[in-house]
Amino acid sequence: MPVPPRAHLVPLLAVVALLAVPPPHGSSGTGTVADAASAVLVVCCAVRVVRDRVRPLSRTAAVVLGLPVLGICTAAVASHDPAASLPGVARYLQVFVLVPAAVVLTVRDRRDFAVVAWAVIGLALAQGAVGVAQYLTGTGASYMGEDVRAVGTFGPTDVMGMATVVAYGIVAATGIALGTTGRRSRTWALVCGGLLAVPLVVSFSRGAWIATAAACALLLALCGVRRAVRVGLAAGALGVVLVAGLGIGSQLVQERVASISQVTAAPDRSVTDRYTMWAAAAGMWRAEPLTGVGLKGFPHYRDSHASLALSSGSDTAGAGRGFQRQPLLSPHNMYLLVLGEQGLLGLLTVAGSWLALLGCALRRLADTRRAGTLPACGLVAVGLLVWQLVDFAYADIGGPATVLTALVLGMAAWWSFAPHRPAGGPATGTGTTGTGTDTGTPAGPVPPRRGAPAPPTPNSAPRARS
Predict the structure, then answer these.
(1) pTM of the model
(2) pLDDT at 205 (0 to 100)
(3) H-helix or E-strand spanning residue 322
(4) What is the mean predicted confidence (pLDDT) over 124-147?
(5) Any idea what DSSP says for residue 351?
């Protein structure tokens, strides 16, 4: 029985699809069905690597993706309570090592990448539709005394979940619209990006707004100044129509946008708590500068390093949940979280891996641009990675959407390290994903150049001229 052409993507697409399943009531954000699907994806890739008996990754890819292991394991061993750090070790390895490597091994060509990118956009449309309905019907999470905050299926305890997914969809749609040559794909990408702007606005997530604007601005700059100016004007006009013309959250959005510039002059309670937790994470690092206080150690050491300005928690309500006081268990800054819990060694290895990944992705994109092309998959990968690195300044891992962060890092790693090939063609590049050799040699015979005579076969005789 013939195997469907994209059957190998089923475990990967299952992770994306299962993120639409609402987490169980009272869940802390880990152990969801999407996390279970990501474990299945990793196991499938491991079985295939053992079966094929080939080196799955190039040396560069193995070093960059495996670098966080050093800081994570060292912080766990040096922790005051190594047993309590074990769940953190599993989570960090899942998000930053195992799932990204599994994505690199699963995606075979640019068509596979496009399928995954459109799946992310589809998930963003589904979550965004739920979020807009929550805003319009007043059934969202509580915000400024009203149940209008769009949170999708993630619930009020994970207000960043829907905003993250929708922002991924916008960035992916922008990359496809700028890099694809097909009119139909470009049109659909533009339509999807425009639709997703609405739920992003009513998510009231300042960090997601800033990261989305930065990532899209970078993609536009890579495609040329003139196009960037035209699209920027169009986006500004769309914003005026949405907020001023249609009145989508106009008053609340204006207040939220204004609060971005007031984070130092007159910060609100959430900003004050965030600054206090940032200072607490920095204090933990000063106490244990090399290896930090240990994974999952921030909640235990928070009060001993935080000032009295820190509140006891944040109020959550709405979206089908009753009032709940949610404790502040992280500094809402991934870089400071790594610095406080894993020390300088952890920051150099974990964040260093991300920066190395970004450098490799930009270098490959520059190489393709010098060759006269700017592929959509490269723009999508770079845009998603830049969005994540900017958003990490305002958020950290946690919640059901974290597994999608791992997929995004894997998509960027595929673009940076996998041997690229045309859809259905031989692989080219540096590194392997189970085909060819470590030097990037295709697994089959190299086709002749266009216009060159075909080489004679061993058992063929020259034809006589007629």
Answers:
(1) 0.85
(2) 87
(3) strand 321-326
(4) 89
(5) I
Distance between CA atoms of residues 179 and 346, nearest Å: 36
Residues 56 and 49: their CA atoms lie apart, in Å, by 7
Q: What is the pLDDT of residues 265-286, one digit of tens each?
A: 556 677 788 888 999 999 999 9
Of 423, 446, 444, 421, give the one whose Cα is nearest residue 431. Answer: 421
Q: What sign for the dihedral angle of Cα 389, 392, 394, 399?
A: positive
Q: Determine the residue type at 168.
A: Y
Among residues 330, 313, 319, the alpha carbon closest in space to that of 402 is found at 330
Strand ranges (E), 109-189: 141-143, 146-149
* Ramachandran quadrant class, 72 (left: phi over 0; alpha: psi -120 to 50; beta: rest): alpha
Q: How far is CA 240 from the centre of its chain?
A: 28
Question: How many Cβ atoms are within 10 Å of 294's Cβ, its own excluded?
Answer: 26
Comparing CA positions, the residue from 179, 34, 141 lying closest to residue 94 is 34
Q: Which helix (H) or strand (E) holds 324?
A: strand 321-326
277-334 per-position pLDDT tens digit? 999 999 999 999 999 999 999 988 888 887 776 776 666 666 666 666 777 788 889 9
**pLDDT for position 146:** 82
What residues form DSSP beta bridges with 149?
Answer: 141
Lowest mean pLDDT among 398-402, 419-423, 424-428: 424-428
For the sheet with 146-149, list strands across it.
Answer: 146-149, 141-143, 314-318, 321-326
- The span from the CA of 433 to the CA of 411, in Å, is 14
Alpha carbon separation from 205 to 192, 292, 317, 340, 410 (Å, rounded): 20, 30, 16, 25, 25
**What tokens does 2 get?**
């013939």
Angle at CA 206, nearest 5°, toward 200 and 212?
55
Q: Is 285 helix (H, G, I), strand (E, B) or coil?
A: helix
| Bridge partners (DSSP) listed for residue 318 | 141, 321
C-alpha separations of 82 from 67, 79, 187, 239 in Å: 20, 5, 52, 50
**Which residue from 342, 316, 318 is spatially nearest to 327, judged by alpha carbons?**
316
Strand partners, 49: none
The 10 Å Cβ neighbour count of residue 327 is 10
- Dist. CA 402–CA 164, nearest whole Å: 9
Nearest to 201 by CA among 218, 188, 213: 213
CA distances from 315 to 12, 312, 326, 364 (A): 35, 10, 6, 45
